[in-house]
Amino acid sequence: MRRITRIATAGIASAALALGVTACGNDKSDAGSDSNGGKAAIAYDIGGRGDQSFNDAAYAGLEKAQKDFEIKGTEAQPSEGEGDPDKVQRLTSLARAGNNPVIGVGFAYAPAIAEVAPKFPDTTFGLIDDTSKTGKNIANLVFNEEQGSYLAGVAAAKVTKSKTVGFIGGVETPLIKKFEAGFVQGVKDTNKDVNVKVQYLTQPPDFGGFSKPDLGKAAAQGQIDAGADVIYAAAGLAGSGSIEAAANAKKWAIGVDSDQYEQSGLAAYKDYILTSVTKDVSGAVYNLIKSVEDGKPQTGEIRYGLDKDGVGLAMSNPKFTEMKDVIAAVDTAKADIIAGKITVKTAP
To answer: Edge to edge, what strands does the sheet with 39-43 contain?
Structure first.
C-alpha cells in the first residue's frame, strides 16, 4: 500500500500542478522519443496514475496509442484539494503545447473542459464519465457502469454464504450511485434475501473518498465485522484499501474499472479478488486518439455498454471461472441485459 500512496501523492506542490506534465517517453514507455510529431495528453483524476484502477486504465490506452501510432504521450497529475481553476490551467497548458487530443480523466474535468475547449477549436477534448458539458470539439466518453455492476451483484449473491454483502462508494455522486444501483439490483434479482450494506466514504465537495486507501480499508472492515463476506468498492485508489481488508479477513473482494486481479500493486491480495467490474477506459482513450490520428475525430457522446464489451466482469481469477453455476448466472444476466429483457437502474 505504501507504493500506491506514494505515487498518488507525488507532485502535490503547486509547481507540479501548473506544469505537472511528463512525457510518457521519459516514464514507463519510450515511444515518445520516436514520435512522428503527433502528441496526445491525458490529465488524471484524483489519485493519479498508480491507483491500480481508473487512472491506470486511461494510461494503458495512451501507452498503446503511443506504440501503435508513434506519437508522444504526455501525462498531467492532479494535486490534492485542487479546484476548477487548477484544472483549467492544466488543460490550457496541454492544449497550448500542441497535444491533440487532450483528455480529462473523470467527471471533475467537465467545467474546465467546457471553459477551455472553445478557446482551442482545432483541438479535440475527451471528457470521460460525463455528458453534462458538450461542444463541437468535445467527445464525451461514457459507460454503462450500472450494467457491469449488475453482473457483480449476481456474482455476489451467488457466492455469499452469510447472505450479507457490501458496497462501498468513494464519493456519493450520481456516477457512483450508478454502480450502487446496478449492484443492488443484481443482488436482489438473484436472491432477494441477501442484505446489501451501502456506505460512502465522503460527500461532495470532499472528494477524498477516491484517494485514501485507509478510508476504504476501514469501511470494508466495518462491513465485514457486520457480517459481509463479499465487498464491492467503486472508490478509485481508496478501493485498494477495501481489497486489502477483504483479503486479510479471507473474504471476497470485487474490484472496479481495471481488472484488479492483474494489478501488480494488489498482487498480495489477488487470491481474494473474485472478479472486477471492468470499464474499457483504455479502449475509449485509444479510440479517441486513433480518431484524431485518422483525421476523423470523435465528438459527442460515445457510449460503451455490455453490448460493445465496454463494461463487463473480469475472468482472470481461476477460482471464479471454476464456479460454473455462478458463471452461468452471470452469462444469462448479461444476455438478458443486452436483449433488453432486463433494464438496469441508474439510480438507487
So the answer is: 21-23, 72-76, 39-43, 102-104, 125-128, 138-143, 300-304
* Grid cell 475547449 in the structure block, residue: 117
Residue 41 has pLDDT above 50, yes or no: yes
Q: Please list the residues that pair with 254 across neighbouring strands.
A: 232, 275
Residue 18 cell numbers, joined: 501548473
- Specify whether the CB–CB gap between 239 and 53 falls below 8 A: yes
- Provide the residue count of the chain: 348
| Alpha-carbon span 254 to 154, nearest angstrom | 12
Contact between 235 and 209 under an 8 Å Cβ cutoff? The reply is: yes
Q: Render pLDDT for 94-116 as a digit per residue (tens, 0 to 9).
A: 999 999 999 999 999 999 999 99
CB 166 within 8 A of CB 197: yes
- Kind of pairing between the strands at 72-76 and 21-23: antiparallel
Q: Is the pLDDT of residue 6 over 60?
A: no
Rounded to whole angstroms, the Cα distance separating 165 from 229 reads 6
**Whose CA is closest to 256, among 348, 190, 170?**
170
Dihedral pair phi/psi, residue 161, rounded to 5°: -105, -25
Residues in Cβ contact with 175 at an 8 Å cutoff, skipping those fewer than 6 apart: 107, 129, 130, 145
| Cα-trace Rg, the chain | 19
Q: How far apart are CA 300 and CA 79, in angstroms?
A: 28
Contacts of 92 (CB under 8 A, 6+ apart): 116, 119
Give me the residue label for grid cell 494535486: 79
Question: What would the pLDDT profile of 200-231 be if each residue is shown by its tens digit?
Answer: 999 999 999 998 999 999 999 999 999 999 99
Residue with cell 471528457: 127
One-character DSSP codes across 185-243: HHHHHH-TT-EEEEEEEE-TT--GGGT-HHHHHHHHHHHHHTT--EEEEE-TTHHHHHH
Which 8-state DSSP code applies to residue 107? G
